Amino acid sequence: MADDNNNGGEDDMTKEAEKRHDVRTSDATGPNIASGRPAFQSSVGWGGNPARAVDGNRSPLWGHSSCTATKPENDPWWYVDLGRDVYVHHVAIVNRRDCCSERITPFEVYVGKYTDMERNTRCGYRHYRFHPTDTERVVDCPLLYGRYVGIRLPGKNRILTLCEVEVYKTENAALGKPTVQSGVAYNGYASRATDGCRAPNWGSQCCTHTPAQTNPWLRVEINGVRGQAKWVVVINRADCCGERLNGFTVHVGDDERVDHNPRCGGHHVIPAGTNRAVIDCNGLIGRYVGIRLPGHGRVLTVCEVEVYPGFATRKRTSEVRGTGVQGCGDHKEGDSWVSDEKGQNCICDQNEASCYKVICGEKGEQPPIKDQDELWTCPEPDEKDESARGFLDESIEDWMDDYRE
């Protein structure tokens, strides 16, 4: 192989980035999800095809046919298709050692849904480097989500060589764990929130549903003992009624009552155009992770709740807030009132005024009604009679309809 030792340059930004971001030797646990997956690169030089980086051969020697290579070009790239979207924890890279090890410095790592790497999210900062004595380096990609993981060498006339690339995902601590909620309507059972199905439409039978209640909640027991929650991911409905979830709070702690546990930030809103919220709980420790909708006549529906462990990265302060307005004016803690906007109630919850629209029915088709306190609420759902008598009556009615026809 030609000995083109262009390394793209090392600058102060490279060194400073490494100080600020964790690039280390791999301490991976769990399977390498890149192994054997389809891989692609910007060009192929000297027979160094992209599949070599995911073949399981970690030899750093070119003669062992274990390393990729591109032709000399501007901004060469390589990526692997994981086959599905995952939360990536870190990426391990094995560099060539028999020669030319400096070629890879500086490099960038990307995770996302696009095959064009620059459209994806970069792990950490712009430039990372290998020290002269390093064979393997690891770049943390905390909770970046995507199907494609890529490596890019910024600069002119560069050659990208990789002897192995390994990708490790973050494990969801809530998957399959016991889950309960304050009530059930339309067969929207709590277990749907932790079944691994992220489909955001009601017809998929992946979403929970409570009746209209005051302060409905859902609680996941993430561990038989205390666990640590860094990120909580909430998947909302996308087919309708997405705004029904707005103003929710997330809690982590040891108390079975959700609102007795410490809160992650303030009142959270999932913006229009997306159905996913990633809440930073900053390493709160507890047995339970809960979601609560403060207010009257509220319906709690989520399509998945995921919990990812991690350590606190900054001090929790009173400035770590959500979307609620600080202070409640003339209203006291726990007060509810009707907003000036039609169909909306407001509540003073933990010294924040949070207003929300009351949306009723399985698919938002029912108009809200006023209750005895003049607050908006939902009519009681018409639950199907599942008793033997109900089944018999329904069967007779169906038979009579067929007979009349």
UniProtKB/TrEMBL annotation:
SUPFAM superfamilies noted in UniProt: Galactose-binding domain-like
GO MF annotation terms: fucose binding; metal ion binding
Gene Ontology BP annotations: regulation of cellular defense response; regulation of complement activation, lectin pathway
Matching InterPro entries: BG_Antigen-Binding_Lectin, FTP1, Galactose-bd-like_sf
Start-end of Acidic residues biased regions: 1-11, 394-405
Basic and acidic residues bias locations: 12-25, 364-373
Superkingdom of this protein's organism: Eukaryota
Domain Fucolectin tachylectin-4 pentraxin-1, first and last residues per copy: 30-169, 170-314
Xref: Pfam families: F5_F8_type_C_2
Keywords: Calcium, Disulfide bond, Lectin, Metal-binding
Signal peptide: none
Job of this protein: Acts as a defensive agent. Recognizes blood group fucosylated oligosaccharides including A, B, H and Lewis B-type antigens. Does not recognize Lewis A antigen and has low affinity for monovalent haptens.
Subunit comment: Homotrimer.
UniProt protein name: Uncharacterized protein LOC118408655
Gene name as annotated: LOC118408655
